[in-house]
Amino acid sequence: MAGMENSQELQRFLEQEKQKAMISEMVGKLTSVCWDKCITGSPGSKFSSSETSCLTSCAQRYMDMSIIIMKRFQSM
Amino acid sequence: MDAFSSSSPSNGSSSASPEALMDQLKSQLAQAYAEEFLETVRSKCFAKCITKPGSSLSGSESSCISRCVDRYIEATGIIGRALFNSPR
């Protein structure tokens, strides 16, 4: 069997899936955190514009914060 | 990762071509993602909509749950877009 080719193909596939898993975990986590922060009342039939922009800002600020925390630890 | 290529002739399910293995992995991953998402939606919407559990689910609780599920899915999309396709 063409072992080398197959294992390289699998390796690539696994790498890709690992990446996807990381992204999906991050989106899932941030959705949970930002939902709790931004959606305070009972859910309506449509997001208000302030809820939408809160969710967007929440996700982006979380990333900003992650960078600051990483830098803080790197400088210790 | 040689385990995949070297051991397959000896075990019984050696019919697993890389394509079949990848397909199987993909569908198992998809199922795992879906289950995890479902569990999250359940706990979020229970917290939001069933604030005081009564003897049965009321109509307003049911409709709250429907809206909650829709909004949670929408929120997931908003977060994804905020992270990956917006100029920062």
Automatic annotation (TrEMBL), chain A:
Keywords: Chaperone, Disulfide bond, Membrane, Mitochondrion, Mitochondrion inner membrane, Protein transport, Translocation, Transport. The keyword Transmembrane helix does not apply. The keyword Cytoplasm does not apply. Signal peptide: none annotated. It is found in: Mitochondrion inner membrane. GO terms for biological process: protein transport. It holds the Pfam family zf-Tim10_DDP. It is a peripheral membrane protein. GO terms for cellular component: mitochondrial inner membrane. Residues 13-75 form the Tim10-like domain. It comes from the Eukaryota. InterPro entries: Tim10-like, Tim10-like_dom_sf. Belongs to the small Tim family. Heterohexamer. Mitochondrial intermembrane chaperone that participates in the import and insertion of some multi-pass transmembrane proteins into the mitochondrial inner membrane. Also required for the transfer of beta-barrel precursors from the TOM complex to the sorting and assembly machinery (SAM complex) of the outer membrane. Acts as a chaperone-like protein that protects the hydrophobic precursors from aggregation and guide them through the mitochondrial intermembrane space. The twin CX3C motif contains 4 conserved Cys residues that form 2 disulfide bonds in the mitochondrial intermembrane space. This is Mitochondrial import inner membrane translocase subunit. It comes from Dioscorea cayennensis subsp. rotundata (White Guinea yam). The gene is LOC120255919.
From TrEMBL, chain B:
Residues 1-20 are annotated as: Disordered. InterPro entries: Tim10-like, Tim10-like_dom_sf. GO terms for molecular function: metal ion binding. One of its GO terms (cellular component) is mitochondrial inner membrane. Keywords: Chaperone, Disulfide bond, Membrane, Metal-binding, Mitochondrion, Mitochondrion inner membrane, Protein transport, Translocation, Transport, Zinc. It is a peripheral membrane protein. Residues 24-83 form the Tim10-like domain. Pfam families: zf-Tim10_DDP (PF02953). GO terms for biological process: protein insertion into mitochondrial inner membrane; protein transport. Residues 1-17 have a biased composition (Low complexity). It comes from the Eukaryota. It is found in: Mitochondrion inner membrane; Mitochondrion intermembrane space. Heterohexamer; composed of 3 copies of TIM8 and 3 copies of TIM13, named soluble 70 kDa complex. Associates with the TIM22 complex, whose core is composed of TIM22. Mitochondrial intermembrane chaperone that participates in the import and insertion of some multi-pass transmembrane proteins into the mitochondrial inner membrane. Also required for the transfer of beta-barrel precursors from the TOM complex to the sorting and assembly machinery (SAM complex) of the outer membrane. Acts as a chaperone-like protein that protects the hydrophobic precursors from aggregation and guide them through the mitochondrial intermembrane space. The twin CX3C motif contains 4 conserved Cys residues that form 2 disulfide bonds in the mitochondrial intermembrane space. Belongs to the small Tim family. This is Mitochondrial import inner membrane translocase subunit. It comes from Dioscorea cayennensis subsp. rotundata (White Guinea yam).
